[in-house]
Amino acid sequence: MAGFSELIKNFSKTREYVHDFFVYGFKVRGEFNKKSSRTYDDEKRRTESWMCDHIRYDELGRGRQVSISVDCGHIQENPLYSAFRSCSFTDNDIKLHFLITDMLCGGEELSLREMTDRLNTDYCFLFDEQTVRNKLKEYVQEGIVISVKKGKTMYYRLSEDRTEDYFRDLPGLEDAVKFFSETRDIGVIGNSMLRQADLKNDIFYMKHNYIIHTLEDILIPDILEAMNDKCFLIIKTFSSETNIEKVVPMQILASLQTGRRYLAAYIPGRNRFTSRRLDKISDVKNGGRCEDYDLYKEKYDKNISKCFGVSFGNRHTSGTVSPMKISFYVDEEKESFILDRIERERRCAVLEKTGEHIYTLTADVFDPNEFMHWAKTFIGRIVNVEGGSDEVRMRYISDIIKMKKMYGGDDDEDIQ
Amino acid sequence: MKIFSEIYGTYFRITSKILSEAYTDDKTVRDIIMKEGFRDSVLFLPQKLIPGSEDWGLLERLPDGRLKRIIKNKPVEILTSLQKSWLKAKISDPRIRLFMDDETISRLDEKLADVKPLFLSSQFRATDRFSDHDDYEDEAYREHFRQVLAAVKKRSIAEVEYVTGHGRTMRGKLVMLKIEYSPKNDKFRVYSLLLRHDRIRSSGIVNIGRITYIKDTGRVFRTPFSIDDYFSSRKCTVPAVVRVTTARNGIERFMMEFAAFEKHTVRDLETGECTVELWYDAQDETELLIRLLSYGPVVEILSPPALRKQAKERIGKQYSLLCGFNKTT
Question: Would the CB atoms of B93 and A180 count as touching at under 8 Å?
Fold first, then answer.
């Protein structure tokens, strides 16, 4: 395995492998067939190295199955954050990082020439000015170094925002960052702050915790930037390198129950809104200013209120926009907790009492499938289904009949 | 502003840690790499730090064999623009007020006056969050939360009164171990031990939103107690075993939804179906059951028998409703 490195340059390739090891966990070497076996071996070894405490091996007849097994509700740090800590770099990158920050940490303001000279005289490192200039430019963008122009010369000083000062001077910030570092919305950034200060979350656990989302966080800053700047976004998917789509990004949607996150976007070519799964997107880039952004956003804000989940449905299928009504049996006196559950989970559906112990939810939504899927968590109580689409209603009936057979009717023997 | 950058990387962190002391030695360098690095870092990193043919030149060897850093000061850790813009975005999150008072938040806001928030809350939308979330604006809730947080950090014994899920008011001395947050419920709960005569009587979870009174007794619970033991005591004794079929993209949907569970999956190569063992907290069994049933015939609960029986009963009732009323029109 000559040339193997546990550091990586290309995060998107690793995303695919870590995703499959974690989400599926049932594939063996021969089933990772998108790339060569050598690529699989390297990606597997890296994943083992990053997350060794959570790797599980199972010897099967067809090969060794490698998976990442995590009880996500009972961990204090997302183990997939390790993937973000594996970015490769050059020897000059690390040398200049520690030398530049050392040179400037006393509060001095130095020009490029002065710094290059001092690297030689004070530290015995010979760098050409262009190399140092590039690093300074990068660090100015990252906010580590501040540049100030005096006359014709640019001077550089270190940012005064020290991580330890923030934690020391702002009571409660440490606990807040410990909490937010494990939440959605790019918690990995908070985790990086904790690590700078040698801290760890030792207080909070997250239930219903979809740690896999962090792999998609790599896309989020660029998506947000395109939204902020009212720009198109060019998205590329894992399924095909040539599958490129130009969209207008509207919002990032997260289902806290299905574990999926989506980019809700307007597709100009199809004149409609849609939701693209973030875990299927390999790369995004800014596609230039969208002059009609505000117009699309206004339409989106109206449309999203008619989504039960993330789907904008298929308007070409007849009947999909007629309101769907599902009635449930609830004994209010003995089962008020069921009514409470319906109330807190009903989203945009309207609840009304329509008979003795009968409560009806009406949902005027784009995709009645999503409403029906949720309603099936009330199996045993559904007394009536109306509206929506024929397909959804027929599937519901067929499902109940199939499940009745599946569980063996009255003759079921427990399967061991 | 890059989120995937070497400046947040493990190698930079290890190097920073090693350079934090003016003098060190080979063993300490290797020990830090072993402790802080990835599993294989010890194969790649020592030769980059310890003077030799491949090193970065950040340490030099002294005649007495020790290693001396070539930089003059302990490395500094600077907050990057990305980190500051993330913090700025969090200032708008109502939950930050559980941790920081208004004056401190104002000071943070001032420090970040020139920073744009990384995101606005309106740019994200949780599609299926429950509506009865905790009220983070409520001053009494915030005060209870802060007291719980303080008790967790000190592991102190607190006198607590709270209302159970069934509406009963309970009062007792609790040791609060850790805080749990559910994004789906948007609620905080606290893992607790109930004490009687200073001995552990039982364990439980208390919704912070249901606490009506809390006071620190001033005493600290010093009996060693493992949080892993606590979790183990609440786990199912046997996993739920389910069969997931390939219909309606079932494998993909199921694996994503249940990715948060500790699980073990075996796939049948002929049918493509998966048999999945799922470990779950015993108190969440009903939640698990209804989520499995929502998959319809795509997922079949195979065992344990008690769970399968519950599924069968619910389906039986539903089948009767379907046949009896048959009002699906």
Answer: yes
Number of Cβ pairs < 8 A linking chain A and chain B: 410
Find the range with the poorest average confidence among A65-69, A283-287, B157-161: A65-69
Mean pLDDT of all residues in A83-110: 97
Sign of the C-alpha dihedral computed for residues B3, B5, B8 and B9 taken in this order: positive
CATH code assigned at A159 = 1.10.10.10
- Residue B325 pLDDT: 53
pLDDT at B190: 97
Query: How many domains is chain A built from?
Result: 4
B94 contacts chain A (CB < 8 A)? no
- The beta-carbon neighbor of A208 closest among B2, B152, B260 is B260
Tell me whether 0.90 is exceeded by the ipTM: yes
Are the C-beta atoms of A383 and A327 separated by less than 8 Å? yes
Closest CA to A211 of A191, A225, A197: A191
Single pTM value for the model:
0.94
Task: Please say if the pLDDT value at position A34 is more than 70.
Answer: no
In sequence order, what are the beta bridge partners of A57?
Answer: A66
What percent of chain A stands above pLDDT 70? 95
Task: Output the pLDDT for position B269.
Answer: 86
Q: Is A45 within the bounds of a domain?
A: yes
Number of H helices, E strands in chain B: 11, 13
In a domain, A76, yes or no: no
* Domain with A28 in it: 11-69
Chain B residues touching A391 at Cβ < 8 A: none
- Mutual orientation of helices A129-142 and B81-91 as an angle, nearest 10°? 0
Residues A285 and A340 in one domain: no
Q: Is residue A150 part of a domain?
A: yes
